[in-house]
Each structure stands twice: as structure tokens, then as C-alpha cells.
Amino acid sequence: MQLNKYIDHTILKPTTTLEDIKNLCMEAVEYDFAAVCVPPPFVKLAKTFTGSTDVKVATVTGFPFGYSAIEAKVAETVLCIVDGADEIDMVANILAIRNNDWEYLEKEIATVMPLIRNHGRAIKVIIESGILLEEEIIKCCALYAKYQVDFVKTSTGYAEKGATTEAVRLMRAHLPANIQIKASGGIRTFAFAQELIAAGATRLGCSGSVAIMKESAVTK
């Protein structure tokens, strides 16, 4: 298992500095992580630091609560694409999920997907699984499978509960094989990273990625 290729090396805190972004990207290049995930204003800078390497640049829209208007998410998506983001982690409208407004959620993803596909980008839809009922997670899987998103993602890291192996297993059981799962939120140890991968995650959003890699090297 190439653990490094599962990792989105992440910094999304509102106090992020230019130096933080440089360090994140340099670490990602050193460890050959799958991607860095940075706040939208830092996408251009991250692209500069990752250069011609294989490290992709991901960013977020509708972050962290998901209740931005559809028009706002469209505008954010356009700006992310213009700035060069390879992957976009969009927070679904959690209010709509909790209020059983699946018509709104379908309109949201149906509006955003053409932008993603027409520009050859990847999308990860964040559903905040830690605060949803099982039936809500299953409905999300059905909806986002219909629109052939690239990933369904567990969490923003800002809710009271992040990734769990149970949620990843549930998602894997209700998503077609071609749709991947990104686990994020509270992944701080190599052991937990292994558990999430075994449960079906193919990408891990981590801020402590380097520590996890060092732990994995010691564990071998």
C-alpha cells in the first residue's frame, strides 16, 4: 500500500498564512502526496509551489457549512477552476439534507456538475456523515451516484464528529465501485488511516499527514 498516494495534505484553517501554504506544498512534494487541499484564495500559490509535480491542488466550495446559495457555489467553482484547482471539495447543503429537501440537493449538484466535467476537474461532495442519520447517508449516496461525482467525502473537519469506519463502510456499500470515498476529519494516526482504507476509503484528508507517514515508516 502506497499510503502517501491516499493523502490529501490539508490546511483549511482561517488563520492560514502564505508560509503555511509553502510548507504544506513542500511537504506534499517531498512525500509525493495525492494532493494538497487549501483555501480558495491560495489555489494559485499552491499551483506555483507544486509546479510540474504529480501533486494535485484541491480546494473547497460552500465551506464549511454548505448552506451557500447554489449561485454562490457556482461562482466559487468558476473561480477555483480559473485559478487552476484540479479537484473541488464541495460541501453539500447540510440544511437541505437534514430537512429532507432532496429536490434542492439535486438541483445543486445538477447545476455544478457541468462546470466540473466541461473543465476536466474532479469533484468530491462533502456530506458531513458524522451528523447524519444512516438513512440520510444512504440517500446522499444514491443522489451523488446518479450524477457520477468522483468522490463522496465524509466530513469537513468542522463538525463535532469526523470520519468513522462505520460511515465509510456504509458509503462503500451504497456507492457504485467507480465512485470513490474520501475520509476526513480527525485522522491523526497510521492505525486509523489503515482502518479507513480497509473500510473502503481511497483518499484521506489529513492535516497531520507527515506525522502519519513517519508513524507508518516506524510501524513497518
Could you characterize the architecture of this molecule?
With 220 residues, this protein is α/β, with parallel strands linked by helices. It has one domain: Aldolase class I (TIM Barrel). 46% of the residues lie in helices and 16% in strands. It is built from nine helices and eight strands. It has helices at 18-31, 43-50, 70-83, 94-98, 102-118, 134-146, 165-173, 190-199, 209-219; strands at 7-10, 35-38, 56-61, 87-91, 122-126, 151-153, 180-184, 203-206. An eight-stranded parallel beta barrel has the order 1-2-3-4-5-6-7-8, surrounded by six helices. The termini are close together.
Largest beta sheet: strand ordering: 1-2-3-4-5-6-7-8
Residues in helix, %: 40-55%
Rg on CA atoms, Å: 16 Å
Question: Which parts are unreliable, with pLDDT below 50 for 5 consecutive residues or more?
Answer: none
The amount of beta strand, in percent, is: 15-25%
Structural class, by secondary structure, is alpha/beta
| Major sheet description | 8 strands, parallel, barrel
Q: What's a concise summary of this model?
A:
With 220 residues, the protein is an alpha/beta fold. The chain is built from nine helices and eight strands. Belongs to the DeoC/FbaB aldolase family. DeoC type 1 subfamily.
Features:
220 residues, alpha/beta, TIM Barrel, 8-stranded parallel barrel, 46% helix, globular
Write the layout of secondary structure elements.
Elements lengths: L6 E4 L7 H14 L3 E4 L4 H8 L5 E6 L8 H14 L3 E5 L2 H5 L3 H17 L3 E5 L7 H13 L4 E3 L11 H9 L6 E5 L5 H10 L3 E4 L2 H11 L1
Parallel strand pairs: 1-2, 1-8, 2-3, 3-4, 4-5, 5-6, 6-7, 7-8
Helix pairs in contact: 1-2, 3-5
Organism: Chitinophaga tropicalis
Pfam families: DeoC (PF01791)
InterPro entries: Aldolase_TIM, DeoC, DeoC/FbaB/LacD_aldolase, DeoC_typeI
